[in-house]
Structure formats: structure tokens, C-alpha cells
Amino acid sequence: MTMRRFRQIAQKAAEQLEEPVREAGNLARKLGLDPYPVNYWVVDYEDMNQLIAYGGFQRRYPHWRWGMSYDRQQKQDQFGMGKAFEIVNNDNPSHAFLQESNSLADQKAVITHVEAHADFFANNEWFGMFAGETDLDAAAMLERHAETIQGYTDDPEIDREDVERFIDAVLCLEDNIDQHRTITDAASGRERVQPEDLRKRLDDMDISQDVRQQVFDEEWLDRLAETEAEAARLDAPRRDVLAYLRDHGTYYDEEEGKAVEMEEWQKDVLDMLRTESYYFAAQKMTKVMNEGWAAYWESLMMGEERFAGTDEFLTYADHQARVLGSPGLNPYKLGKELWEYIENTTNRREVADKLLRVKGVSWRNFHDAIDFEEVQELLAPDPAIDGVRSDTLDLLAELDEDDPRVDWETLDRALSGEEVDVDAYPWKVLTYEGLVERHFSLVKPQNRGFLGRVRRSELERLSRYMFDDEMYDTVEEAVADVDYSAGWDRMREIRESHNDVTFIDAFLTQEFVKDNHYFTYEFTQSTGEFRVASVDYEDVKKKLLLQFTNFGKPTIVVFDGNFENRGELLLAHQYNGIMLNMGQARGVLERIYDLWGRPVNIATIVKEYDDHDVEVARRRNREPTPIETGKRLRYDGEEFELFDLEADIEERIQATDVDYDTKPEEWLS
């Protein structure tokens, strides 16, 4: 663990943070986390805004987007719309940047938060997909990209505006990758070989017009073109649009009046920006999980383990309240609540499993036979573990000498008068086993009663395959056998393999929705107002999943690179009930034309409302039923055309795999 300094003015702040950095890392590892090593940098206000604009890195390629992001962040600070506490990047070692003007309480909160992020980066499989078995060095990679692209903009043989325009075009598609595969696997997607365009070959051949008309009549060429166009469609749509454009894209050369092969610098820039999209994909796919994970462990370390000093706790409480209380869909709040729910339900299952093995207790009489107040008292941590202070160390020393909950070596040093600040860092004299008992979730005040709310259906499931159902004579014996680490162990398992979509799909339940007061709302076409639509967990889950699938962006795939045998690109919007913004779609097609060099098309489905149906629905206080029609939007470099969509394509773009059986008129705006 090292502390970096940008300038002399930050040295005092950096020295003040040496101990919190060291001890936060030690505490994180005691709690069972396994983070990347973290380098902490102390920066001023301007540097922090620049780093946030650059996505957490010091060097990025030249582009106007960074200036726009910087200006937005500066205005947020200036007008009180958001305070910058830290930024941390996914790298090994990770790099975290602390703003020197923040209070010590804020800095401690950031450091504990960062250690949990670094653990998530190091152990979540989706982050591992980018680097694979190689060492991750993202900062060096992004710096190389920045230098290379800067070189192209400075090259007198290349027009700087061409470089900027090309980057703009690629950035319109930066999320159109196959984020569920590695960058190498996505690039090698199987596709059908495109048929030759016979008309083009005839144009290139030295054949007289008479011979051509006699041998290749237009009707026959039309039939051939139609057949080949159908055969040209890909067996499986290509999700990695950027890879497809890199392999097959051209650009329109105005001097030659036709599409020509991309120049080497264009291919190079596209490759680099695609690589960066894959690098940042894991962060976008796990925003709720990652921020919730960091907020959970930060709260435990700062509050329950008293990493925030007595004189710092109120400042920290305000810090946490601002983070968790920010409006809109708050990934910190949703994620933290879901992790706590997983911990509680796992611990409840562990306790219920033991209680169901008490003689005379079954799933049928569980709520009548069990005294939940007694169980709460039995689950409470040993006072020697729970109340560690410098004046209570003798209680720990009186425990059995092989008690696994005590760090006997550190305790011996503390009792021997060596410098161990137990009052500031009580966890130092405990092991992981001691800490899981000390922080067992079901005995915390906010969770009292959670055990008693276990459903009979869950108890029946636990009992169904239970063979040793009379292991204990008493409740006390059963509780003594509870595994206090069950909740944390399960959390780490989930942290390894899930992303936001699978996380929410698997663990958001009706109990969670009810306890945390989640609901859905809709914009009604009939009244033009928003209203609460549902408190059912399935509806809440569907709405959240739609916001996180494909980073919350429309799913666009490549259907055909030789549409209608004319070398046109056919993209398809996998429709899930939410219509494309057609104005934005036109703008994106204009940019894609720069990467394809020939006409581009997008197939989608639009919704229209009949005025009479809307009026009738308004009178009856219900939503009108939209008319869904397949459309194909085409751009040829100069103008747009809108066509009715072929029935087979319309059927293929119904994205049943991410549809979740929802339609916007049911509960979405």
C-alpha cells in the first residue's frame, strides 16, 4: 500500500492519510476481502474534476467529450448538485484519487469504499473477462491510445477534423459490443460468406452491351439478386457492431465518388476505441452490485467497526446520507439494500435450518414452537467479542486458548504493552471468525424480527430433503451450531459471478420490494400524467431489468452487410416494447454512414396511437392499446426514407430473450 503525491501542497494531507490507508487495507483483509493493492493520490479540486471527466485516468485520447464532462462536473460542484469525494479505476494495482479539500472523515469513508471496490475488481468474473490471465495495466493501455491518437491528429498528412469526425462516429456505437463475451471471442463471431454482387462484376468486365443483354437479362438478374440477398443474411445476428464495421467497413471518398477501404489510421482508431469499450463494459454491467458492495463494507468499517472516530462520526453519517439519499435510480442505495437482504436471508436460512433439526420442531409448528426473543439472545455475540476495548482485553484472554475468534498473537502484544491501539482498531485482536460473530446481521437492531418473518413455504423447502431432522435436543444446542459466516460467504460467492441483470433477476423478491418500499410508475397517454402503477415485485424487477440490459441502451445488431444485394448495411433493433427515439436514430445512422461508406438501414418497430382510442381510454381511465408496426429507416448519405418492414424481419427483431413479457403501456413511461 503506497501513498502518492502530486505536489508539495498535498504533502500534509497525504501524511495525515498514511495510517488510515494502511489500516483500512488491513481491516478489509480481516473481513475476508481480497482487494488489488491500491495506490492513493491526493489531488486538488481542478485535478479531481479532470480525472472524473477522463473516467478515472490521467491520460485519454484528444476529444471534445472530455471538456464537456469536465464542464458538467465543475457546474455540479459549483451549484451544489454533487460533491466529488473520490474516483477509483479498475487496474492492478488500482489507483484512487482523493480530493485534498475533503475532511478527514470523508477521506476515511472514501478509503474504505475504495478497498471494497478494489476487491470487487479483483474477484468479479466480468472484470476478469477483459484481461484474462494477463496482468491488467489499463492506465498504460489508455495512455498508449492517447499518444497514438494524438499522433494522428498532429500528422500533417491527416486532417484533424477527419480524425475527430471519425471518433464521433465510433463513439455513437461504443456500447454496441458483445459484452457477454471476451473481446477476442466476440471478434470471431461466425458469419455466412457474403455472395458476390454479379451486377458489379459485370460492370467491371469488358463485355459489350449487346452480349450482356442477350446472356444476362434484367429479369434473371433481379431474381438472382433477390435470392442472394436472402442468402446473404447472417445466420446469427452480430452483436459486436464495432467489430463488424472494423472488418467490413469503408468510407465514402468524395473525390472518387464511391466507398473505399478504410485507411490504416481509421482501422487503428476503431480498434483502440473498441478495446476501451470492452474494458469499461464490466463497470457498466455491475454498477449496482459494485457500488452497493462498496457502500456495504464502507458502512460496516466506518460505523460498526468505528473506523470513523467519535468526533468524525456525524460528518461521516452526513456523507453516507448524501450518497444513499441522492435522487433517481440510486445504484448505491439499491445495491447496498440488496446485499443486506442477501446477507439476512442467507443467515435466516442458516438459523432456520438448525432450528428445524430440534426435536419436536417442524415447518408446520415452527412459528409456535420457537421463541424468537430467546433465539435473538442466543445469537448475540459473546460480550468479550462484541465489546472489545483496551480495558476489556482480560475478557478475551479468559477464553479458551484455542478459541478461533481471537487473534492471540496480537492480543498478547496488546497485553504486553506493545503499541496496539485497540480502542481505535478493536478488530486487530479478532480473527475473521470473531468478526463474523461480532457483525452477525440478524442481531442488529434494524433486523430484529427478520427471522420471525420466515415464510412457511421457505421452511417447507428447507425441510423437504432434511434427513437429520432431530440432531438437537434444545434450541440452545441448535443455535450454538449456527455458522455465523454463512451470509458473508454467500455474498462473496455472488460477487464472483453475477452482473447487475442476473443479480436483480435472482435476488429481488416480493419481500425485498415490500420492506424497502419499491414501486413502479408510468406516464399515462390518456391523462398525460405520471402515476403509481404497481408494487408487485415482478413489475419492479421487469422495469429495473429493462434499464440495465445492454447498459440500458437499445440492443442493436448487424443483420446483413449486403442488404438487397446492394452492399447496404442492415442493422436491427431488438425490440422489447420500448420504441427507438427516431430523431436520435437518424443522427446515429448519419454517423454510421461515415463508417460504412454506403447506404445504411435500421429495422425497428414503432408504436402509434389512434386519437379516438386515446379519447375512449381517457374516459374509461385506462391506457390505450398502441398499434405496433415494423419499419425500416434508410439513409443514403443525403436523405432518409422510411419503408414498411418485411414480415420475416419484423418477426426476427422481437427480442424475446430480453423482453421479460413487458410492454410500456402496462407500466412504463
UniProtKB/TrEMBL annotation:
Protein name according to UniProt: Stage V sporulation protein R-like protein
Domain SpoVR protein-like N-terminal residues, every copy: 14-353, 485-552
Pfam families reported for this sequence: SpoVR, SpoVR_C
Domain SpoVR-like C-terminal positions: 554-605
InterPro entries the UniProt entry points to: Spore_V_R, SpoVR-like_C, SpoVR_N
